[in-house]
Design a protein that fits this description.
The protein has 250 residues and is α/β, with parallel strands linked by helices. The chain is built from twelve helices and ten strands. α1 packs across α6 and α3 crosses α5. The chain is globular and about 45 Å long. The chain binds indole-3-glycerol phosphate (IGP). Indole-3-glycerol phosphate binds next to β10 and α11.
């Protein structure tokens, strides 16, 4: 794995993590009678440009939770998504629900950062990691008390994800190279996620009908970013998304 700089050094991060209290359980929060909504704090995106640069992380995350979000995804990637670890820290201070650190994680120190800044879960993108890196980062995350959300797009990646005992499985409809939303990916892959795993349908949801389609496939949760970032009535929009009954798989 390549070396990576962190604002805080490893020793400082390890000291913070040693003192850190428990965080709420990400996977448990996603098992509820309704499809659980993971609402994403997203300032900008490569496909849509700036969504809302002036967004206040504490205010926005409180609205998400008031609207019924089960968990939140906090983009911490700065160059393409305008995120930061400060957003993660501010969200942790503002709301009680589990937080996912959403970033391109390739190095173990990013897991320490995630835990130190209050995350309950971390995104691991199967396509961006070779199989041994994915397995190592998955085990390291679990050892730190973080749930890995392993993002997949095909059967081979699903097999690798399911090999990580504590992993929650995310199916991303968006091709991260072309940025195109391909609903057929979720339609094919969500039903294949083993029934004892939490399955998250990611990207491209704009309304409750989209959540209902994910529910019909058997998704336990949906991850919604862009459409919430630009919603005029954030709480009302979320309340509609969070009211869809889950059907389950198998
Ligand atoms: O904004 P959308 O279409 O609702 O998508 C949210 C989320 O799924 C998307 O931000 C995402 C999914 N996987 C990623 C990996 C990296 C960065 C971003 C992502």
């Amino acid at each position: 794995m390549r070396a990576r700089e962190s604002a805080l050094g490893r020793a400082e991060l390890e000291a913070i993590v040693r003192e850190a209290g428990p965080v709420p359980d990400f996977a448990a929060a996603l098992r509820r009678p309704q499809v659980a909504v993971i609402a994403e704090l997203k300032r900008s995106s490569p496909s849509k440009g700036t969504l809302d640069a002036s967004l206040d992380a504490a205010d926005r995350t409180r609205r998400y939770v008031a609207g019924g979000a089960a968990a939140l995804s906090i983009l911490t990637e700065p160059s393409r998504f305008g995120g930061s670890l400060a957003d993660l820290r501010d969200a942790r201070a503002a709301v009680p629900v589990p937080l996912l650190r959403k970033d391109f994680i390739t190095h173990e120190v990013q897991l320490l950062e995630a835990r130190a800044y209050g995350a309950s879960a971390v995104l691991l993108i199967a396509r961006a990691l070779d199989p041994s890196e994915l397995a190592e980062l998955g085990a390291a995350a679990t050892a730190l008390g973080l749930t890995p959300l392993v993002e997949i797009r095909d059967e081979a990646e699903l097999t690798r994800a399911v090999g990580i005992p504590q992993a929650v499985i995310g199916v991303n409809n968006r091709d991260l190279e072309t940025l195109v939303i391909e609903p057929e990916v979720g339609a094919r892959m969500i039903p294949l996620v083993p029934a004892d795993r939490v399955a998250v349908y990611e990207s491209g949801i704009t309304d409750a009908a989209g959540v209902a389609r994910a529910a019909a496939l058997g998704a336990d949760a949906v991850l919604v970013g862009s459409s919430l970032s630009v919603a005029a009535d954030v709480e009302g929009t979320l309340r509609a998304l969070a009211a869809v009954t889950r059907t389950g798989r198998g």
